[in-house]
């Protein structure tokens, strides 16, 4: 489904409410809630909301496990680390023990080992279809149509077996770690946050006019629910009928 709200701030607020709803539902049904966090500016605002007085007490954090969807090849305290951003925006202010927070080891020189370690950590999630199942995976869409660290033209796009992979991203001259499609698409719910008119043309291609497989984010097709949470700027080039 597609939900359009006014601006980036409204996207982060609507996302916070949806995270609360998903957490309450999962904890009521199964006693636990697992979430994979994304990087990016809209998620940062979402995390700040979740740690704020308005939202914090609506989630029983003792029954939450925090994971990450991707990470840069940097130390956890590096300014580009998704882990650092999430700590500063939310995790440091929440009643979470270190055992509830599972970060990708972007600092390891052997990033394949870091990916294998993370795949091992995912084994504590409930399994479905022989794969770990997140309750909620948060994602964004980059200008080039990437999501998580599934970048155009990279080896990660064809991964069928591993749940977590390390990859070269030649266009950024770097390496990343990312969840693979199989585990993303095994989630109960995936929420894609996209804000800003600068994303509008790409979003129109992704959702309407580009052939399937042109952009990595098109490969996000979960068995569970897929929610595109957009602001009006990002949605400007989508046909009215899609938004009704
Ligand atoms: C990351 C993200 C990445 C992000 C997109 C969109 O680590 O950077 O996981 O996939 O979601 O680049 O980012 P914005 O929402 O900031 O545009």
State the end-to-end CA separation: 10 Å
Query: Strand-residue fraction?
Result: 15-25%
Roughly how many Å is the radius of gyration?
A: 17 Å
Which small compounds were modeled alongside the protein? 6-phosphogluconic acid
| Percentage of residues assigned to helices | 25-40%
Spans of at least 5 consecutive residues whose pLDDT stays below 50 are none
> How can the largest sheet be summarized?
6 strands, parallel
Q: List the total number of helices.
A: 8
Helix-strand category: alpha/beta
What is the mean predicted local confidence, pLDDT? Answer: 97
Number of E-state strands:
11
Descriptive report:
The protein has helices at residues 8-30, 41-51, 82-89, 111-121, 181-184, 200-209, 232-235, 240-243; strands at 2-5, 33-37, 64-68, 70-72, 127-128, 131-132, 136-140, 164-169, 174-179, 189-194, 225-231. It has 244 residues and is of the alpha/beta class. The strands form three sheets. Strands 1-11-10-7-2-3 form a six-stranded parallel beta sheet. Strands 4-9-8 form a three-stranded antiparallel beta sheet. It has a two-stranded antiparallel ribbon with strand order 5-6. β10, α6 (200-209) and β11 form a beta-alpha-beta unit. The radius of gyration is 17 Å and the shape is globular. The relative contact order is 0.17. The mean pLDDT is 97. The protein binds 6-phosphogluconic acid.
């Amino acid at each position: 489904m597609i939900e359009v709200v006014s601006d980036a701030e409204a996207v982060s607020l609507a996302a916070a409410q949806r995270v609360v709803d998903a957490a309450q539902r999962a904890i009521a049904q199964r006693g636990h809630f697992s979430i994979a966090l994304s990087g990016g500016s809209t998620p940062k605002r979402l995390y700040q909301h979740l740690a704020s007085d308005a939202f914090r007490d609506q989630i029983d954090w003792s029954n939450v496990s925090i994971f990450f969807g991707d990470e840069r090849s940097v130390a956890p305290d590096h300014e580009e680390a998704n882990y650092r951003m999430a700590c500063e925006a939310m995790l440091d202010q929440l009643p979470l023990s270190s055992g509830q927070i599972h970060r990708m080891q972007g600092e390891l020189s052997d990033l394949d080992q870091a990916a294998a370690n993370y795949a091992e950590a995912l084994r504590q999630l409930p399994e479905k279809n022989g794969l770990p199942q997140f309750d909620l995976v948060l994602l964004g869409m980059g200008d080039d149509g990437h999501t998580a660290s599934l970048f155009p033209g990279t080896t990660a796009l064809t991964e069928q077996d591993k749940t977590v992979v390390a990859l070269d991203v030649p266009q950024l001259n770097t390496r990343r770690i990312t969840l693979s499609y199989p585990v993303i698409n095994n989630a109960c719910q995936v929420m894609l946050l996209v804000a800003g008119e600068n994303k509008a043309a790409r979003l129109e291609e992704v959702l309407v006019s580009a052939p399937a497989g042109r952009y990595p984010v098109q490969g996000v097709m979960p068995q569970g629910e897929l929610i595109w949470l957009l602001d009006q700027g990002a949605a400007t080039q989508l046909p009215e009928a899609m938004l009704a």
